[in-house]
Design goal:
The structure holds 2 protein chains of 2 kinds. In chain A, 28% of the residues lie in helices and 23% in strands. By secondary structure, chain A is an alpha/beta fold. The longest helix of chain A is centred in the middle third of the chain and has 17 residues. Chain A is globular, with a radius of gyration of 21 Å. By secondary structure, chain B is α/β, with parallel strands linked by helices. Chain B is 40% helix and 14% strand. Chain B has a 5-stranded parallel β-sheet. In chain B, helix 1 packs across helix 5, helix 1 crosses helix 11 and helix 5 packs across helix 6. The chains are: A alpha/beta, B alpha/beta. At the A-B interface, helix 6 of A face helix 3 and helix 4 of B.
C-alpha cells in the first residue's frame, strides 16, 4: 500500500451529539466520536461531553451526521500534464469541499502512469499537498495504447491499487485476457470503461430521438452492454477480477446482475450523472452535459437507480473529469466529454436517500466503505476505532443550489449547474486535521 | 391555413423548430413578393441600405453562399464573405473568437454555415446581431426548407394535405430535418425512404413514416424530394456501392411512376447524377422544379434577411 507519511492532528478532538453513520459496522445511532493523534479512538453513545478528557477540543454536532470521509474511486486529477485543468492540490481542495478524503486517480495523465516513477510522483505530490489521500490506478497497457501490458506486478508493489486504461476501453480481447490472467497472482483488479469502441466511434451522445432531432451522431446503449458481455466471458475464462466503471444502461445492470449470481468476480460502479440526469440534459447542445458514457434515456436512469438499490451496482464514484472552458465552449461535437464531480458526489448521492431508494446508511456505504473494500483500502471509509480519522460532517437536509463558480476545483464544468440539492458538507477532516469548514461552521463550534 | 402572423418574433433564424405556421407563412409571403420582383428588370431595393451582412462559411458551399450574397446585395446591404476552412484553423476557439471579432464590427446579420450541429446556435449566443443558419452539421438548414416550401406552394397552391417523400441520405441530412419540421408544422404528411443504414434512430417519433422500398414509399406522393448522398460525411459502410444504391434507391422513371402523375421532383443540389437521381428525371421540364428551387432560394433569403435585420433595427430603435 502507498505510504501515507503526512501530518496528523495532534491532541484530542471529539464530536458529540451527532448521528453516527458507519456502514462498515452498520452503525447508525446518536453519539460521539473521539479522535486522538489523527486516529479514531472511540465511537458510540458513550462518547458524550461529560466523559471526555479535559484537554479535548469538543465540537457539538447538533444532531448532524458524522460519517467516514468519502472514498472516490474514479477521479482525474489531471496532473501531471494537464495542470491548466486541475492539479493534485486543486483536486485536493475540491475533494475536501466535497467531503472526499480518499481518491483514486486515473492514469491517463501526461506522461501516463504506466511505470513505478509515475506512481511515486503522484504519491509524493499528494503527500506534499497534504489534502485528500491520493491513490492511483496503474495503466493496464503501456501508454494506455492497448497493445502491451505494463509491469503490473511492480506497479502494484509501488502502490497502484488497481489497473485501468483511463477513459479508454481495453478493446483488445487478447490484452484484457492477459491482464486479467496475470493480475490473479496478486489478486489485482482491472477496471474497464465499457464502451465498444468501434460502435461508439464518432458519436457524441446517446442515440435516439433527441440525437436525431439535434443532428448529432448517437451511440447506441448497446455499445456498453456488448463490451460488458464480452468481458464477462474473459473473466470466466481467466478467473480475474474485473470492475466496470460508470455503467449507464439498464441492460448493463441486468447482465451484471446475472453474472454476479453466477459467482464471477465482477463488480461495477456508476456516477451520480447516470442516476440523477437523463439525456434531456444535453438539449440545447449543452456541452457541460456531454459525458462519457453519454447520458441515457429516462428508462436507463431508473434502471441504474434500481441497480443501486438492489446492490447490483456496488459503488458510486464521482467520475471527476475537470475540463477548462476552452474544452467545453465549443460546438457539441468538438467539446470534450466529462464533468466535475468531487463537490457534488455527496449531495447527489443523498438524492437516493431523499427519494426513498436507499437508506441513509446504504447511500453512504456506496461512497465510503464499499469502494474502500473494493480497492482493499483497509482502515479507509470507516469509523472503526484505530482507523485514520478521515471524517465528514454533513447536514443531509440543508437545501442549497449548485453553483460551479463556487467550486474549489480549477474547472467548472458541472452538468449539475443550478440544480437544487438537499445536503451540505459542513466539515471534512483528514487524519484528524480539519481541511474544510463550511462558512456557517467557522464560528461558534 | 394556420394563424396569421404579422410579426416574426425571433432574433435569429436558427432552424424551423419552434416556428409557428404563421411565422413560416409570413416569411414565405414576403419571399413570394421577392420572387416576383426578381423576375422583373428592377431586382434591387435599398431596404437594407447601410446595413452589413457577413457570410461566415466554415464549410464550402458555392451555391448557398452565392444565394445569400445575391439576396443581401439585392436588398442594398454591404456584404462581406468569409470562408474559413475548418482544417486550417484551430477548432472551436476560432468560432467564438471570430464571432467576437465580427461582433465588434457591428454587422446587422451573420449568415453562418458550420460542419457541426449546434455551432450556429453557440455563435448566436455570443453576438448582438441577427444570425441566420445556413446549415449546421446534420441539424438544420432552415432557408433550404423555406425555399422548398415556397416552390411547393407555388405549384400546389398549399402546404397542407400533401404527401411528401424525402428520399435518400436522411441520416446525414440537415435538409431532411428542416423539411420534416416545416412540412409537419404546415399539415403535410412526410415519408422517408432510404436503406435502413441511412435512417437515423427513432426518427419516426418526429411524425414521419419510414419506407425502405422506393416503389412502395413513392406510391401516390405529391412531392418527391431527393437528397444528395453525402459520401464525404459517411464513416463506415452505409451502402455497399453507389451502383447498388442507384439500383434500389435512385430515382428513375420506373420508380417515379408510382408517385402521382403530377408529382413534383425536387433536389437541394448539387446532384449526383446517376447516384441518387437519373438525368432523365432531373431534367424533366414538366416535373422537375430543381432549378426553380435555386431561384426561390434567393427570394427566401431576401425575405429572411429583411425580416431579421428590420427586427434588429426596431430593437435598436426601442433601446436608443
Amino acid at each position: 500500500m502507498m505510504p501515507a507519511i503526512r501530518a496528523k492532528a495532534s491532541g484530542k478532538t471529539a464530536f458529540v451529539n451527532v448521528r453516527l453513520l458507519d456502514p462498515a459496522t452498520g452503525l447508525d445511532q446518536t453519539g460521539g466520536l473521539l479522535m486522538q493523534d489523527g486516529v479514531i479512538a472511540e465511537i458510540g453513545p458513550s462518547v458524550t461531553r461529560d466523559n471526555l478528557p479535559s484537554d479535548c477540543r469538543v465540537i457539538d454536532g447538533q444532531g448532524l451526521c458524522l460519517a467516514p470521509g468519502l472514498v472516490d474511486m474514479r477521479v482525474q486529477v489531471r496532473e501531471p500534464g494537464f495542470e491548466h485543468q486541475e492539479t493534485i492540490e486543486t483536486a485536493g481542495k475540491s475533494a475536501a469541499a466535497g467531503g472526499v478524503t480518499t481518491m483514486v486517480a486515473l492514469p491517463n495523465t501526461d506522461p501516463v502512469i504506466d511505470d513505478v516513477a509515475g506512481v511515486e510522483f503522484v504519491a509524493r505530490r499528494a503527500r506534499k499537498v497534504g489534502l485528500a489521500k491520493v491513490f492511483v490506478y496503474g495503466a493496464v497497457s503501456k501508454g494506455i495504447e492497448g497493445h502491451e501490458i505494463t509491469e503490473m506486478g511492480l506497479l502494484h508493489q509501488a502502490g497502484a491499487v488497481a489497473f485501468c486504461d483511463g477513459v479508454n476501453t481495453i478493446a483488445s480481447a487478447r490484452l484484457l485476457r492477459q491482464a486479467l490472467s496475470y493480475s490473479t497472482f496478486f489478486d489485482g483488479m482491472i477496471v474497464q470503461h465499457p464502451e465498444e469502441p468501434e460502435l461508439s466511434r464518432g458519436s457524441h451522445m446517446n442515440s435516439g430521438e433527441l440525437a436525431t432531432r439535434l443532428g448529432l451522431s448517437g451511440v447506441s446503449p448497446l455499445a456498453e452492454v456488448i463490451q460488458i458481455e464480452r468481458d464477462i466471458r474473459l473473466v470466466e475464462m481467466t478467473g480475474g477480477r474485473l470492475h466496470f466503471s460508470h455503467i449507464s444502461t439498464g441492460e448493463s445492470v441486468e447482465v451484471i446482475r446475472k453474472a454476479k449470481k453466477r459467482g464471477l468476480k465482477i463488480t461495477c460502479d456508476t456516477a451520480p450523472f447516470y442516476f440523477a440526469l437523463n439525456e434531456n440534459a444535453v438539449s440545447d447542445y449543452r456541452t457541460f452535459a456531454k459525458l462519457s458514457p453519454p447520458l441515457r434515456s429516462e428508462d436507463d436512469r431508473q434502471a441504474i437507480v434500481m441497480g443501486l438499490a438492489d446492490g447490483t451496482i456496488d459503488t458510486i464514484a464521482s467520475d471527476h473529469n475537470p475540463q477548462d472552458q476552452d474544452s467545453k465552449r465549443l460546438p457539441f461535437a468538438q467539446a470534450a466529454a466529462g464533468g466535475v464531480g468531487l463537490e457534488t458526489l455527496l449531495p447527489i448521492t443523498l438524492e437516493l436517500y431523499h427519494n426513498g431508494h436507499l437508506s441513509l446508511l446504504e447511500a453512504i456505504d456506496k461512497i465510503t466503505h464499499a469502494p474502500a473494500k473494493l480497492m482493499k483500502l483497509e482502515n479507509h471509509g470507516t469509523l472503526k476505532p484505530g482507523s485514520a480519522a478521515d471524517i465528514v460532517m454533513f447536514d443531509p437536509n440543508r437545501p442549497a443550489k449548485i453553483d460551479p463558480y463556487k467550486f474549489q476545483s480549477k474547472s467548472k464544468n458541472s452538468p449539475f449547474d443550478g440544480r437544487l440539492i438537499q445536503g451540505v458538507v459542513l466539515r471534512t477532516l483528514i487524519d484528524g486535521r480539519e481541511v474544510f469548514t463550511h462558512p456557517s461552521c467557522i464560528e461558534g463550534s | 391555413m394556420g394563424p396569421e402572423a404579422d410579426h416574426y418574433p425571433h432574433p435569429h433564424l436558427l432552424g424551423i423548430e419552434g416556428l409557428t405556421p404563421g411565422e413560416i407563412t409570413l416569411i414565405l409571403d414576403r419571399a413570394q413578393h421577392y420572387a416576383e420582383k426578381n423576375r422583373t428588370a428592377d431586382k434591387t431595393s435599398n431596404i437594407l441600405a447601410g446595413s452589413t451582412v457577413v457570410n461566415l462559411f466554415y464549410e464550402n458551399s458555392t451555391r448557398t453562399l452565392t444565394s445569400f450574397e445575391l439576396a443581401a446585395k439585392r436588398l442594398g446591404a454591404d456584404v462581406i464573405n468569409m470562408t474559413v476552412g475548418t482544417s486550417s484553423v484551430k477548432k472551436g476557439e476560432t468560432l467564438i473568437d471570430t464571432a467576437m471579432t465580427l461582433n465588434a464590427m457591428n454587422p446587422d446579420a451573420l449568415v453562418v454555415r458550420h460542419a457541426d450541429s449546434g455551432a450556429v446556435k453557440l455563435l448566436s449566443e455570443k453576438v448582438n446581431c441577427a444570425v441566420l443558419n445556413a446549415g449546421d452539421g446534420r441539424h438544420e438548414h432552415p432557408t433550404q426548407a423555406l425555399l422548398d416550401a415556397l416552390t411547393i406552394r407555388r405549384h400546389k397552391g398549399r402546404l397542407h394535405r400533401l404527401t411528401v417523400a424525402i428520399c435518400g441520405d436522411i441520416a446525414h441530412s440537415r435538409v431532411a430535418r428542416s423539411n420534416i419540421l416545416l412540412l409537419n408544422t404546415m399539415g403535410s404528411r412526410v415519408r422517408l425512404i432510404a436503406p435502413p443504414t441511412l435512417i437515423p434512430s427513432k426518427i419516426e417519433r418526429m411524425g414521419v413514416e419510414i419506407f425502405h422500398d422506393m416503389e412502395e414509399g413513392l406510391k401516390d406522393c405529391d412531392i418527391v424530394m431527393m437528397l444528395r448522398l453525402q459520401l464525404e460525411r459517411m464513416e463506415g459502410s452505409f451502402i455497399p456501392s453507389v451502383r447498388e444504391y442507384f439500383h434500389f434507391h435512385g430515382l428513375d422513371r420506373a420508380k417515379l411512376a408510382n408517385a402521382k402523375p403530377d408529382a413534383l421532383i425536387m433536389h437541394p443540389g448539387p446532384m449526383n447524377r446517376g447516384v441518387e437521381i437519373d438525368s432523365e428525371v432531373a431534367d424533366d421540364v414538366e416535373r422537375s422544379v430543381i432549378r426553380e428551387q435555386v431561384e426561390m432560394g434567393v427570394a427566401v433569403r431576401m425575405a429572411a434577411l429583411e425580416i431579421l435585420v428590420q427586427n434588429q433595427r426596431n430593437l435598436a430603435g426601442e433601446h436608443s
